[in-house]
Specification:
The chain is mainly alpha-helical. It contains 15 helices and 5 strands. The chain folds into 2 domains: 105 residues, Orthogonal Bundle (DNA polymerase, domain 1); 126 residues, hpI Integrase, Chain A (Orthogonal Bundle).
């Protein structure tokens, strides 16, 4: 049974304008990818229930079902977040009760290591090799990929943030370095923005791309056409992910994802002495848990045991 679950608030004719305004603000508070993830989670939930009412009991049972199928706690948590968001938009009473909360807590506790450690970080040295390989093809596609890898590595960018960059978002400083204006990100849904540092080499690669492709406005990273021609259409998340994976596999690295460039730079910063707070700020993480997880091996190498007992 297919259920079309919309995240749009369904208001009756008696709803006042202030309610409509609040609903629109709520919708605007999540990114498109988050809205898609919530919609997918809700559809699968109702397909599983197959006509059963959504209650605290059925919700808890579904979470347990997902966990026994091998899903990580983070993936299970998305379902609860989606239900809460949908019920809030539709002004429904919450079906997330004590049983669901206890079930989710147990899943998080028991499965805290499930799904972790699977993504390979791409270090700066690896990125340099990937860039060299891409540029050596002497193609527009290769130059585009080289610029993409450099920008994502410098800015610790999520893949969705990278493909959303426009040419106007990048400025050049007197020393040849650049600044990237990140207008919105996963952890900045209000659009406060952030200014990120780009190395002079990255700026130079971007300028080479623009000069060879012949554009200085619109999307920075674009889809390719046959004959190594560049379109006016923005590069997709899937297209960028495929480019990263292909370039990494070319140098013998597997298990990469759209986060690998971001993770690799975080690991290198940690290796060079960046504090956890500095890592959190550089990667725009809302808390310290994720950068601490990604850089735990680098932290161990600089901990008290390594410093004080490493020479024994």
């Amino acid at each position: 049974m297919q259920h079309n679950i919309s995240l749009r608030h369904t208001l009756d004719n008696k709803a006042d304008r202030s309610s409509v305004g609040v609903a629109r603000l709520l919708e605007a508070s999540i990114a498109p990818n988050t809205a898609k993830a919530y919609g997918d989670a809700l559809r699968k939930l109702f397909d599983h229930l197959d006509g059963q009412p959504l209650t605290d009991t059925t919700m808890a049972g579904y979470l347990a079902h997902l966990y026994t199928r091998g899903l990580a706690p983070a993936s299970v948590t998305v379902v609860v977040q989606a239900v809460r968001f949908w019920e809030k938009l539709d002004r429904r009473p919450s079906s997330v009760g004590p049983l669901t909360s206890r079930t989710l807590a147990g899943i998080r506790r028991e499965g805290r290591n499930r799904g972790r450690g699977q993504v390979t970080g791409l270090t700066r040295e690896t990125v340099k090799i990937m860039v060299q390989n891409a540029v050596s093809t002497d193609t527009l596609a290769g130059l585009r990929d080289a610029a993409l890898f450099r920008v994502m590595s410098d800015g610790l960018l999520r893949i969705g943030e990278a493909v959303a960059i426009d040419c106007a978002h990048i400025t050049t400083e007197f020393d040849g370095s650049g600044r990237l204006l990140l207008l919105q990100s996963k952890t900045d849904q209000e659009g406060k923005g952030a200014s990120l540092f780009l190395t002079a080499r990255t700026v130079d690669t971007i300028q080479q791309l623009q000069q060879k492709a012949g554009y200085t406005e619109g999307p920075l990273f674009r889809r390719m056409l046959k004959g190594d021609r560049m379109s006016d259409t923005r590069l997709t998340v899937d297209g960028a992910r495929l480019a990263i994976k292909a370039a990494a596999e070319l140098v013998g690295i597997k298990g990469v994802s759209g986060h690998s460039l971001r993770i690799g730079t975080a690991q290198e910063l940690a290796q060079r002495g960046a504090t956890l707070v500095e890592l959190q700020n550089a990667g725009r993480w809302t808390d310290s848990q994720m950068p601490a997880h990604y850089t735990r091996e680098q932290a161990a190498g600089k901990g008290a045991v390594a410093r004080l007992l490493g020479i024994d």
